[in-house]
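stage 2 :: seqdesign
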């Protein structure tokens, strides 16, 4: 389904330089449609993470970025952030509460949901990533694979319509990577998956965007 109604990301001529002057994105044009699984690949420093951070307003410029028809700024941000879930590359950037339960509850609580709804969402999200037993554990003591699962749960508990994963297989052992791929395969939500793991992208995505030096150099349908 790639009709105009289902366009959820529209970016036109996005150029971004960090405050120190590093040019990270240089004229990005990008549309993402509901239901797509998009791989975002390219070398270190290509601009992948910088691009992802523009999709929920963590970074912004005056360039034209529209997410679910909204500009990611001001009073639109809470709604955009409830619909766009970003799983950061480093789980330590995501998990900061005393227990996994609290980490996964953080989003729903900040949406203002009631205690029963929050609990139900946390239980479902932890179940969905096979981490129900970790509810009372602190992320600090978990393996990278377990932390990644709880990070994903902390985003799933918002019921996102767009799930963004930045280098999801980084630092995972082969078993952890395999079970992550199977987990993501079973998730019926629009996804953008950034990274170097071309096999993972090939298994999970139908479209691959290659970015280099802040520019999109190819945008290809695969597995069609
Ligand atoms: N906080 C920052 N301050 C300055 N430059 C940055 C910062 N984060 C990333 N960069 C630079 O921006 C460019 C794009 O980086 P990034 O988006 O992290 O690439 P990727 O995720 O593809 O590895 C690189 O040149 C990187 O060094
Ligand atoms: Mg990155």
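stage 2 :: out
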């Amino acid at each position: 389904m790639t009709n105009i109604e289902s366009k959820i990301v529209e970016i036109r001529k996005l150029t971004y330089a960090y405050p120190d002057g590093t040019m990270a994105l240089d004229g990005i044009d990008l549309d993402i449609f509901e239901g797509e699984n998009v791989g975002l690949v390219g070398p270190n420093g290509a601009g992948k993470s910088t691009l992802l951070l523009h999709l929920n307003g963590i970074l912004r410029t005056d360039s034209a970025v529209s997410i679910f028809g909204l500009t990611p700024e001001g009073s639109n941000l809470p709604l955009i952030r409830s619909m766009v879930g970003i799983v950061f590359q480093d789980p330590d950037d995501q998990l900061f509460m005393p227990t996994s339960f609290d980490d996964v509850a953080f989003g729903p609580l900040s949406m203002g949901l009631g205690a029963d709804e929050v609990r139900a969402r946390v239980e479902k999200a932890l179940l969905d990533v096979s981490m129900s037993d970790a509810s009372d554990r602190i992320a600090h003591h978990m393996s990278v694979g377990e932390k990644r699962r709880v990070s994903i749960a902390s985003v799933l508990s918002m019921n996102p319509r767009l799930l963004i994963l930045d280098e999801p297989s980084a630092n995972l052992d082969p078993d952890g990577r395999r079970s992550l791929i199977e987990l993501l395969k079973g998730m019926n939500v629009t996804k953008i998956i950034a990274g170097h793991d071309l096999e993972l992208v090939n298994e999970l995505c139908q479209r691959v965007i290659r970015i280099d030096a802040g520019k999109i150099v190819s945008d290809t349908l695969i597995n069609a």
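stage 3 :: structure notes
- Strands lie at 7-17, 23-33, 37-41, 64-67, 84-87, 162-166, 190-195, 207-212, 215-221.
- Residues 36-60+75-221 form a domain with the Rossmann fold fold (CATH 3.40.50.300).
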